[in-house]
Amino acid sequence: MSFHVSNISYRYNSDSEPVLKQVSFHIKEKEVTAIVGPSGCGKSTLVNILSGVIPNLMPSGEYEGAFDLGQSAGISVVSQSPENQLFGYGVEDAITFGIENMGIESGQVSERLEYVLDLLNIQHLRRRSVATLSGGQRQAVCIASVLAMYPDILIMDEPVSSLDPNGKKLIQSVLRQLRAAGQCTIIIDNNLDWCSDIVDHVIGLENGSVIFDGNREEFFQDFEAQQRLGVTIPQEVEIYRELSRSVEGLKQFYSLEEARSVLSGLLDGRSGYEEEAGQQPQHREMQYILTAEGISKTFSDGFKALVDVDAGFGKGKVISILGQNGSGKTTFVKHLNGLYKPTKGTVKYKGIETTGKSVAQISKDIILVFQHPEHMLFEETVYKELTFCARAQGVSFSEEEALKVLEEYGLLEYKDELPVNLSMGKKHLLTILSVLFSSAQVVIFDEPTLGMDLALKNKLEDIIRRLADNGKTVIIISHEIPLVFKITDEILILDEGLKLAQASKEELASCGEMFKQINIALPPVVVLSKHLGLSKICCDVHSFVGEVIGLYRA
Questions:
Q1: For the chain, what is the mean pLDDT?
Q2: Which end of the chain has fewer CB atoms < 10 Å from its terminal CB, N or C?
Q3: Are 19 and 47 in the same domain?
C-alpha cells in the first residue's frame, strides 16, 4: 500500500506566511519513511493534514494540493505527547479506547489487546494506573493503543523520545514486522540515531519545502543535507564524517562493528585497553549542595518506585540520571523539588531538610523543568513566559537582558506570540531558558531534548554549560546516551528503584559491566576508545577524532 502527496501548501490564515510550500513526495509499500527537518519547518502541520486534523478539525487555514491514499482505509498517528492520546484510568482502558470507539465486537477487542501487550512486551503494565506510569511507559502504552487499531498507514511523531534503549530496540523490531506485513510507516523525528538501520526513505523539509528526497544511503552520505536539516545521526556516522575531512579515502562505515574494522585497519590494528575484572567505580566524597538520604517511595497501589536511594549533588556540577523506563528517575527528581513526599528518607538542601517546605518555597532553590513543555506554558507571550520565574521569585532583570537572551537563542521574532503556538522544540527551549532568570541554584531537566533538532540541542548544551559555569548544579534525565557522556560530569544509575552507582562518567565507562547490568550500551566513542587502545576514554566525537588523527599521523 502506498500513497502520493501532490503540491500541498498551507497557511494558518490569509495574513501569515505559508507553513508548507508545494510539498510533493511518494511513499511506497513496505517502506519506513523518515520525515526530518529543523524545528518549525512544517513537519507537525504536514502530519495534521495527512491525518485529517486539517481541514476537518482546523478549517480556518488556507489549504491547497491533495494526497492519494490508494485503497487505504485510514491513517493513525502516535503523537509527541502521549498524555494527549491516553484516555481511561487503567492501561487496558487506555489501549482499548480507540478500538472500542470503532465499534469492534468485544471478542476482537480482547484479541487485539493481548496482541499489542505481547508485541510491545508490556503485559506487566496491564493492571497499572496510567497516572503511575513513567514517561516511557506511557509512550509505550500510547503506541500500543494506536497499533491495536490496525492502521493502514502509521505515522509516529517522535515515538521513542521517552523510551529507554530497550524500548527503542523493541520499536525497531515492531517496525520491521509492520514493514514485512506491507504497512507504510512514517516516522517524524530529527533523531535518526535509533532508527538508522530500519529507515528506507528520508524526506527533508526546510522552511516548508522539500529539499531532500532519497534513500538512507544517499542521506547519510550527504553531510550538507544532514546539517541543514538539523538531524542527529548515529555517532558512528558522525565519526566517519569528521574523520573523512582529514583522512583521504577513508572507507564509509555505518555500524559499530564496521567502525571497529575500518579504524583498526587505519591504526594498524592496535588495541590494548584492558578493563580490570570486577572493577567498581569509587564515588569521591565532596561538598554537596543537595543530598537525598534513604529515599523510598511506595505509591497507593503498592508499587515501590524507590528503595533507600542515597545521592549527592555538588555545586557547579552536571549530573545525569540513567536507568531503564520505570527505574524511578522521574519519581526521584520529583522528591528533590518537593512534588513528591518520600515514604521514608529525607532531602536536604545546604544541609537543611526540605520536607516542611511547599513546592513554591523549594522552587526558589530547586527547579524542575518538565518533560513536556505544555505542562509549564501558560503566559500570553513568549517574553512573559521567559521572565515568569524572575517575576514570581522577585529576581531583578532588565528588558534588555531578556530580549538579549531571546535574540541569542533564536526566539526574538516570537517574543509577542502565544508560547503554545511554537514548535515543540522551541516550546521546550523556552521553558529551559526561563530558568536563566530563576533564583534556583539547582536546575533539573527531565528529557530536555524532546522535539529538538540538532541546532536546538547545541543551544541546550550551551545553556547547561552556562548554568554550571555560574556555579549552579544541573541534573539531567535523558535516554540520549551520547549526549549524556558529552556534557555530564557525573552519572547516577538507578535500576528498579535502587541506586546502583554514582561516579564520574570516566570511572563508570571504564567498568562497562555496570552498563551491561542495566542493558544500556556505552556510546560508540567510548567503546572505540577502548578497542583502539587510545590514551584516554573519549566521551565525545571531537576528542575521539582528535586522538585518532594524532595516532594516525604519528
A1: 90
A2: C
A3: yes
